[in-house]
Amino acid sequence: MRLHVLAFLASTALAAGVAHAHVEISSGPAAANKSQKITFSVGHGCTGADTLAVRIEIPVGITSVRALPSEFGHPSIEGTAAAVTAVSWTKPVADVRPEDFGYYEFTIRARVADVPYSKIYFKVRQTCRTAGGVETVVDWNALPGETGNAAAPLVVVPSHTPGWNRFTIPTGVTVAQDDLATYLGDAAIVWRGTEAYSANAHTAALIAGTDGVAPLTGGLQAGQEIWVKY
After folding, report:
1. Domain 23-157: which topology?
2. CATH 2.60.40.2230 region(s) of the chain?
3. Which of 98, 193, 202, 215 gives 20 to 30 Å between its CA and that of 150?
4. What is the pLDDT of residues 48-82, one digit of tens each?
């Protein structure tokens, strides 16, 4: 009963915010082992110059790629239809804006591997052009631990349906306490035995104040079973 009461009170929980980068994935977390749209946003150009082109490398774990047209026009594909290795969009030079005031989005539809509680990194090349015709290339390709402009991370979460979902943490996977909001931040409440977690501060306070319930600590370990309400 306590599980259902707290889940009801948590039903208005909001997903935790995500950090913004210059080239980021704005479509949010992706569901593991499913095909879905993945949208990349480019918030600005390069030192005052407008964006001319964007090239996105397709990493391991992303398959069945189909690219959508953007305001730049139709995409160009590298590789084959069965194994796309990169997608790029280039606007006509005549459409380049004289100043950097454009916000752009680029979308692919792809299948994401069955790797919940992980991140898949996309390396992006952004080419900008000034009104005078000078072009600049910026690579967003640094992986965690590397120096440079960070690659765009796609957060992969367990595939789920509205309501209660039961998950077993996969073999070899550990979800650190600090990463719970990353992978389960959109859940109303998470239960592991008599421990519960929510990224929503109000729900977390209810958990802490309920007799017989303890806040979930120590993160999640392989083989543990959790119940999650979305």
Report:
1. Immunoglobulin-like (2.60.40)
2. 23-157
3. 98
4. 999 999 999 999 999 999 999 999 999 999 999 99
Task: Report DSSP letters for 155-171, one per residue.
Answer: EEE----SSEEEEEPPT
d(CA 27, CA 38): 6
Count other C-beta atoms under 10 Å from residue 93's C-beta.
10
pTM: 0.88
> How wide is the angle at C-alpha 154 spanned by C-alphas 150 and 156, nearest 5°?
145
Which structure tokens are listed for 92? 């006509």
The torsion angles phi and psi of 206, rounded to 5 degrees, stand at: -65, -40
In DSSP terms, 89 is beta-bridged to 54
Q: At a CB cut-off of 8 Å and minimum separation 6, what does 184 contact?
A: 157, 190, 197, 199, 228
